[in-house]
C-alpha cells in the first residue's frame, strides 16, 4: 500500500516537472535565443509649402528617391513675381528722386552759404560807411554850429557860412543814406539766414524718401522670400512614401503635398517579453528576417528598451509563447536598409542570448 502511494507521488512530481519545463520555468535559463515579431517603422517628413497657393507642378511620385534641395513642387508664381517687379520699379524711381534731391540740397546749401557770406560782407561795408558818415556828420555839425555862432556875432562872413552849412547838409544826407544801407544790409543777412530753412525742408523731404525707400526694400525682401517659397524642395535625402496633392489644387500653408521617409531613420518596433528582459540589453545584436527576403537577414542592434512594462499588443505574437507583460523595444541599423525593409512591413527579430547568461 505504501509502495503504491510512493509511486503515485513520484509520478505526480514527474508530471509537474514536465509541465513546468514545457511552460518555460526551467527552460528559460537554457534557451539560446528568442524570435519575436515586429513592424518596420520610419520617421515621416511631411512635404508642405510655407505659403498658400495653387500648385502648378508636383514633381514626385510614390517610391521616388529624392535628394536634399531637389525641387518637388511649385506654386503659382505670377502674383508674387508681378509684385516683385512693381516694387523694384518703385524702388528705382525713389532712388532716382533721392539722388536728385540730394544734388538739389548740395546746390542749395552752396548757394545759401555764398549768399550769407555776401550779405555779411555787405553788412560790414554798410557798417563801415555808416560809421564814417556819422563821423563826418558829427564834424560838420560841430563846425556848422561853431561858425554859426561866430556869424551871429559878426566875426565870420555869411557867404562862407553857407558853404559850411551845405557841407553839413551833405553830411546829414550821407548819414541817412548810410543808415538806409545798413538797414537793408541787416535785412539782407536776415533773409539769407532764413534761406537755411529751405535746406531743412529739403532734408526733411530726403529723410521721408529714405524712410519710404527702406519700407519698400523690406517689402521687396519679404516678397522675394515668398517668391522663393513657391518652390518646395526636399529637406533631406529620402524616399517618397506617398504623393498626396496634384497640380491645380489650392493648398494652404503647411498643407500636405506628400510624405517622405529618411532611410537612415528606419527602425523595427517590437515588444520584448518580460522574462527575457535580463538577457537582452541596449546594444545587443539581432537579426531581422522578412517574408520577402527570408534568406537575407538584416543585422541590427537593440537601441532602446522601454522602462515601463505594458500588456502585449494584439498584433505582436512571440513564437515561443504569449506573455502578459512586455517592454517596447526598438531595433536600429548602422547602414541603409531601405532596399530590404519597407515601412509597415511585418518582420521577425531573432535575438541570440549570450552563452554566459
SSE layout:
Layout: H1 2-23, E1 33-41, E2 44-47, E3 53-58, E4 65-66, E5 71-75, H2 78-152, H3 158-194, H4 196-229, E6 231-233, E7 238-243, E8 250-251, E9 258-261, E10 267-273, E11 285-290, E12 298-311, E13 325-332, E14 346-352
Antiparallel strand pairs: 1-10, 1-14, 2-9, 3-5, 3-8, 4-7, 5-6, 7-9, 10-13, 11-12, 11-14, 12-13
Write a concise keyword list for the protein shown above:
4 helices; 3 domains; 357 residues; six-stranded antiparallel beta barrel; 14 strands; Helix Hairpins; single chain; Elongation Factor Tu (Ef-tu), domain 3; four-stranded antiparallel beta sheet; OB fold (Dihydrolipoamide Acetyltransferase, E2P); alpha+beta; 23% strand
Amino acid at each position: 500500500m505504501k509502495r503504491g502511494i510512493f509511486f503515485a507521488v513520484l509520478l505526480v512530481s514527474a508530471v509537474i516537472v514536465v509541465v513546468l519545463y514545457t511552460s518555460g520555468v526551467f527552460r528559460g535559463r537554457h534557451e539560446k535565443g528568442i524570435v519575436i515579431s515586429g513592424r518596420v517603422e520610419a520617421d515621416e517628413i511631411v512635404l508642405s509649402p510655407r505659403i498658400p497657393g495653387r500648385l502648378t507642378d508636383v514633381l514626385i511620385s510614390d517610391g521616388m528617391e529624392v535628394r536634399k534641395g531637389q525641387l518637388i513642387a511649385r506654386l503659382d508664381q505670377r502674383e508674387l513675381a508681378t509684385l516683385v517687379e512693381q516694387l523694384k520699379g518703385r524702388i528705382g524711381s525713389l532712388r532716382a528722386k533721392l539722388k536728385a534731391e540730394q544734388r538739389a540740397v548740395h546746390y542749395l546749401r552752396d548757394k545759401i552759404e555764398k549768399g550769407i557770406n555776401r550779405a555779411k560782407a555787405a553788412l560790414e561795408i554798410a557798417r563801415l560807411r555808416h560809421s564814417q558818415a556819422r563821423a563826418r556828420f558829427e564834424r560838420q555839425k560841430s563846425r556848422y554850429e561853431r561858425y554859426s555862432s561866430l556869424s551871429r556875432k559878426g566875426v565870420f562872413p555869411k557867404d562862407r557860412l553857407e558853404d559850411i552849412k551845405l557841407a553839413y547838409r551833405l553830411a546829414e544826407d550821407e548819414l541817412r543814406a548810410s543808415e538806409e544801407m545798413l538797414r537793408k544790409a541787416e535785412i539782407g543777412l536776415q533773409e539769407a539766414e532764413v534761406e537755411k530753412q529751405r535746406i531743412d525742408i529739403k532734408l526733411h523731404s530726403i529723410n521721408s524718401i529714405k524712410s519710404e525707400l527702406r519700407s519698400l526694400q523690406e517689402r521687396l525682401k519679404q516678397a522675394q522670400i515668398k517668391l522663393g517659397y513657391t518652390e518646395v524642395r526636399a529637406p533631406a535625402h529620402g524616399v517618397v512614401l506617398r504623393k498626396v496633392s496634384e497640380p491645380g489644387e489650392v493648398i494652404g500653408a503647411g498643407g500636405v503635398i506628400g510624405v517622405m521617409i529618411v532611410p537612415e531613420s528606419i527602425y523595427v518596433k517590437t515588444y520584448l517579453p518580460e522574462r527575457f528582459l535580463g538577457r537582452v540589453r541596449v546594444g545587443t545584436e539581432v537579426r531581422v528576417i522578412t517574408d520577402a527576403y527570408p534568406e537575407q537577414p538584416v543585422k541590427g542592434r537593440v537601441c532602446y528598451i522601454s522602462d515601463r512594462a505594458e500588456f502585449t499588443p494584439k498584433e505582436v505574437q512571440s513564437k515561443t509563447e504569449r506573455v502578459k507583460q512586455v517592454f517596447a523595444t526598438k531595433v536600429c541599423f548602422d547602414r541603409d536598409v531601405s532596399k530590404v525593409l519597407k515601412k509597415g512591413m511585418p518582420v521577425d527579430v531573432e535575438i541570440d542570448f549570450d552563452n554566459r547568461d
